[in-house]
UniProtKB/TrEMBL annotation:
<dbReference type="InterPro" id="IPR011701">
    <property type="entry name" value="MFS"/>
</dbReference>
<feature type="transmembrane region" description="Helical">
    <location>
        <begin position="375"/>
        <end position="395"/>
    </location>
</feature>
<keyword id="KW-0812">Transmembrane</keyword>
<feature type="transmembrane region" description="Helical">
    <location>
        <begin position="60"/>
        <end position="81"/>
    </location>
</feature>
<dbReference type="Pfam" id="PF07690">
    <property type="entry name" value="MFS_1"/>
</dbReference>
<feature type="transmembrane region" description="Helical">
    <location>
        <begin position="118"/>
        <end position="142"/>
    </location>
</feature>
<feature type="transmembrane region" description="Helical">
    <location>
        <begin position="415"/>
        <end position="436"/>
    </location>
</feature>
<feature type="compositionally biased region" description="Low complexity">
    <location>
        <begin position="463"/>
        <end position="479"/>
    </location>
</feature>
<feature type="transmembrane region" description="Helical">
    <location>
        <begin position="154"/>
        <end position="174"/>
    </location>
</feature>
<dbReference type="InterPro" id="IPR036259">
    <property type="entry name" value="MFS_trans_sf"/>
</dbReference>
<feature type="transmembrane region" description="Helical">
    <location>
        <begin position="348"/>
        <end position="368"/>
    </location>
</feature>
<keyword id="KW-0472">Membrane</keyword>
<feature type="transmembrane region" description="Helical">
    <location>
        <begin position="23"/>
        <end position="40"/>
    </location>
</feature>
<feature type="transmembrane region" description="Helical">
    <location>
        <begin position="186"/>
        <end position="208"/>
    </location>
</feature>
<feature type="transmembrane region" description="Helical">
    <location>
        <begin position="324"/>
        <end position="342"/>
    </location>
</feature>
<feature type="transmembrane region" description="Helical">
    <location>
        <begin position="254"/>
        <end position="275"/>
    </location>
</feature>
<feature type="domain" description="Major facilitator superfamily (MFS) profile">
    <location>
        <begin position="27"/>
        <end position="439"/>
    </location>
</feature>
Length: 485
């Protein structure tokens, strides 16, 4: 963004670029590492199932229930946890979350039966509650809105990277660690992948900084610029959007965004929890045979491609300043490709379709979070973002449980994956409906009134103008003028 376009002195613009780059170098790689470990610990049950189900006597339905119970504990503690982070600071609260989740994740190595597995998955959800929305909230403390979308995409790249590198890692530990410490391979995997979270909890306590004004690693000039910039943006957003905490927890537009996120996450967790089983099933369907390590490497491919797609699609969204279709189109792609995968006649063709699913899901995720963060700040952001993430992550319960249940009653994974496609397509349609509704400003005076879809569309417009690096109005997805940032 030029100094002329922004109305700020050229020196101030140069200082801003230097500060944002310095903050990104300090925070983004570490945040990616934390989320890599976090996502691995919640989804490694997908690989454990390849050996664990026989040992514990789990049916597909029981495995789906165990996978999904994580999100029950997660649901009830997500909003309180994020409000606590806003109050006590990210450094203390993220460190606490990591310590407790690491202990529980490692403790899953010692479950004696299905009932204990269910209980530990609920506890893991409670322990992890608040981590992801806390990280999204933390980004709003450090990065101006016009810079935030691309750094959110970099942070979220930890999801496909965790699956890409975590899949062969988990498979290798299970295959080559079998018998270590006198434990089965899947138990060794849970133990070894839980320990890093405990260690990183102590690093987090000393490494993270709660707010820009406390950043000793910035110079006085840099710290002053960033503090002023974030306070200016917060005041501007609060003036334009009247969103107290109660409204961010009850307004229909938040529920609409929650459903869109539900659809995207439904596909994400169906893929995470059942892709190893799909690849393992090639032996029966196509008369192929893969070792655990080979299965892990095959599973990694769609996520590696998805990582590249996430970066490119997020950059394209920033460059064009468009948000709604950048969520709807990849979500629709994933919706169409995931059920089709099981009707193809070769392992290669199946993996091409699955890779398209991963591209769609990874492309939609980072752009989606530009919508609520455009009009939520402070405590309302803590509550609203947590609520969207909490309700959306109910898909983490529904996707594995319903997919497993439908597999049991039909004897095939096709019905479950068709349901995934239907849910994702519904999410794509809803986000398009949000985008073509009137802009929100006229409906923002009431506390609960107004058109839910319209407000979200306006959020997309504001975020789009910001991501494009402009302070002047741009065109909304519907072709209507958006409000000035």
């Amino acid at each position: 963004m030029s100094a002329i376009a922004s109305g700020r002195p050229a020196g101030d613009e140069e200082l801003g670029r230097r500060v944002v780059a310095k903050v990104a170098r300090r925070l983004i790689p570490f945040m990616m590492l934390l989320y890599f470990v976090n996502y691995l610990d919640r989804t490694n049950i997908g690989f454990a199932e390849l050996r664990m189900s026989d040992d514990l006597g789990l049916t597909a339905t029981a495995y789906g229930l165990a996978s999904g119970l994580f999100f029950i504990g997660y649901l009830f503690f997500e909003v309180p946890s994020n409000l606590a982070l806003h109050k006590f600071g990210a450094r203390r609260w993220i460190a606490r979350i990591m310590l407790t989740w690491g202990i529980v994740a490692a403790g899953m190595a010692f479950v004696p039966n299905a009932g204990a597995l269910y209980a530990m998955r609920v506890l893991l959800g409670i322990a992890e509650a608040g981590f992801f929305p806390g990280m999204i909230l933390f980004l709003t403390y450090w990065f101006p809105r016009r810079e935030r979308a691309r750094f959110t995409a970099l942070f979220l790249a930890a999801i496909p990277l965790s699956s890409a590198f975590g899949a062969p890692l988990s498979a290798s530990i299970m295959e080559y660690g079998d018998g270590l410490f006198g434990l089965d391979g899947w138990r060794v995997m849970f133990l070894m992948e839980g320990v890093p979270a405990v260690l990183l909890a102590f690093v987090t306590w000393f490494y993270l900084t709660d707010r820009p004004e406390k950043a000793g690693w910035l110079t006085d000039e840099e710290r002053g610029w960033l503090t002023r910039e974030m306070e200016r943006e917060k005041a501007d957003t609060e003036k334009r959007f009247h969103w107290p905490l109660r409204k961010s927890l009850t307004n229909p537009r938040i529920l609409a965004l929650s459903f869109v996120y539900f659809g995207v996450v439904y596909g994400l967790y169906a893929l995470s929890f059942f892709l190893p089983q799909i690849v393992a099933g090639f032996s029966e369907t196509f008369d192929t045979k893969f070792s655990l390590t080979e299965t892990g490497l095959i599973v990694a491919v769609p996520y590696l491609v998805g990582t590249v797609a996430m970066a490119l699609w997020g950059r394209h969204s920033d460059r064009t300043g468009e948000r709604v279709w950048h969520v709807a189109l990849p979500t629709g792609l994933a919706a169409l490709s995931i059920p089709v995968a099981l009707y193809l006649d070769s392992p290669f063709a199946v993996m091409v379709a699955v890779t398209l699913t991963a591209i769609g899901i990874c492309g939609a995720l980072p752009v989606f979070w530009s919508l609520p963060s455009a009009f939520l700040v402070g405590a309302s952001a803590a509550g609203g973002i947590a609520l969207i993430n909490s309700l959306g992550n109910l898909a983490g319960f529904g996707a594995p449980f319903l997919t497993g249940w439908l597999t049991d009653i039909t004897g095939s994974q096709k019905a479950g994956l068709w349901l995934v496609g239907i849910v994702m397509m519904a999410a794509a349609l809803v986000v398009v409906a949000l985008g073509i509704s009137p802009k929100p400003d006229a409906a923002e005076d009431g506390d609960g009134g107004g058109d839910a879809a319209g407000s979200t569309a306006g959020a997309a417009d504001v975020s789009a103008a910001a991501a494009a690096g402009t302070d002047s109005p741009g065109a909304s997805p519907a072709g209507e003028p958006s409000a000035e940032r």
